[in-house]
Specification:
This protein is mostly helical and 246 residues long. It is built from 9 helices and 2 strands, in the order ααααββααααα. The chain has a two-stranded antiparallel sheet. Strand 1 and strand 2 form a beta hairpin. The radius of gyration is 24 Å and the shape is elongated.
Length: 246
């Protein structure tokens, strides 16, 4: 097992701590994949899985290696908690599934998403944002930070029933895939981002038939035969009820 993990994730790790951080990141992305599959089926358990993903990845990494990382991890944890609350506004069907209605993306929601991504990236830089350290970051780092933030921020759109959130998740996963391929071609991480992108495409496909928010139910005209059959059934029920009362 150790040799398999080293083959998949140890390609660029230069120390034991780097190896642990890579494994934590991989475990977090694996949980993101599971969460996307569950939420594609509108399952509340997907939000609990996403909460666990934040704990396993950014939260534990911050607690174990750098407490300043909590500046980024704690706000990141708010996103799946919001999703859990937002899904609770939809009608429950079965044990955990929701009758989600879709909403269209607006210019204001797009601006809000961009502002949220910028804020998350700023929090990711942490103290380096105030000592101009972020100015020395390479383009690869910038793309990775934005892609990582977009992976989690896309679930805010999904929580609101915005189908395009699945496309944002897919694009973010592909961006991370390209960056990891360029700077640290670890087969395990590359595979995880491929699976996340596929899960996002799966969610986008499944949500194509969801009703729009505020849409009126479709009125179906019944034929004369169907109307007669319904009247006969109702007459039979009325007769049975009358005999029961006697």
């Amino acid at each position: 097992m150790d040799s398999i993990l080293e083959t998949l994730f140890m390609a660029t790790a230069d120390s034991g701590s780097s190896y642990v951080q890579i494994l934590l990141s991989a475990a977090s992305m694996l949980l993101v994949f599971v969460s996307a599959i569950l939420l594609a089926h509108r399952n509340d358990l997907g939000w609990w899985t996403l909460i666990l993903s934040v704990f396993v990845g950014p939260m534990i990494s911050a607690l174990q290696f750098d407490l300043l990382g909590l500046i980024y991890a704690i706000p990141l944890l708010v996103l799946p908690i919001f999703g859990l609350w937002r899904f609770s506004q939809f009608k429950l069907t079965g044990k955990f599934s929701r009758e989600v209605t879709t909403t269209s993306i607006t210019s204001w929601s797009a601006v809000g998403m961009i502002a949220g991504l910028i804020l998350l990236v700023a929090l990711r830089f942490g103290p380096f944002l105030f000592n101009s350290g972020f100015l020395t970051a390479t383009p690869e780092v910038w793309v990775m930070y934005f892609a990582d933030a977009a992976i989690f921020a896309s679930f805010v759109m999904i929580a609101r029933g915005v189908r395009e959130g699945w496309l944002l998740l897919a694009l973010a996963a592909i961006a991370d895939l390209v960056i990891y391929f360029v700077i640290s071609p670890m087969l395990g991480m590359l595979g995880l981002y491929v699976f996340i992108a596929l899960a996002a495409a799966y969610g986008f496909f499944l949500w194509r038939t969801l009703p729009a928010a505020g849409s009126e139910p479709v009125h179906v005209e019944l034929s004369e035969e169907e109307l007669a059959l319904q009247k006969a059934k109702q007459a039979t029920l009325d007769k049975m009820n009358a005999e029961t009362e006697k």
